[in-house]
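Final report, Chapter 2: Outcomes

The project's central promise was a pipeline that accepts a single protein chain and returns its three-dimensional structure in a standardized token representation, suitable for archiving and comparison. That pipeline is now operational. To close this chapter, we reproduce one record exactly as it appears in the project archive, with the input sequence first and the structure output second.
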Amino acid sequence: MRFTKEKEEKFSSQHEILEQNSKKIANSNIEQAYVIFPYNQKNLWIPDDKFWLEIKEGMMGNKGFLICSPNALVAARPKIDDSRYLITVNEMVLNYWQEIREYLENNLRIQSIIFISTDINLKRIWRDFNIVYGKEEGKIKVKEKVIVVPSSFWKTIYKIREAIVFNLPIWLYKLLGERR
């Protein structure tokens, strides 16, 4: 593959972020990873101060760590200490899980994953998790926290989009994700 200057800089930047994130999670004393999935779907759900407080105090405690995508944070950055979360490079759910798996393999103390998602894309999240983790799923506990988004025109549109994406053949889904 031939790299343009722009592609080379982007690749170098992503590699640096991946390396920094790996070090951050490997050197932390955590047992649970909280994973937020991309939400910025026409701003149907934006994490507010109440949500961040719940994450920080109620859910994460001292042994939790937050992983989120850049898209999940377009409108709201975590109100959590920088050492307690990382921002991924990938957005697509399948690639997102693959990146998260690499991070979690750097810290064997992690015993569970709690993913936080709206009620729009649960099936795809679980499908992609199973593709990435396969039979290894039993080694780590996985739970979900679902945020119910009120009915609206845009929620209906995104649910239809998710149904289409969910029903794509895996090879096509992976190909589209690579080209995104």
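Archive annotation: The two ends are 16 Å apart (CA to CA).
This record, like all others produced under the grant, will remain available to the consortium after the project formally closes.
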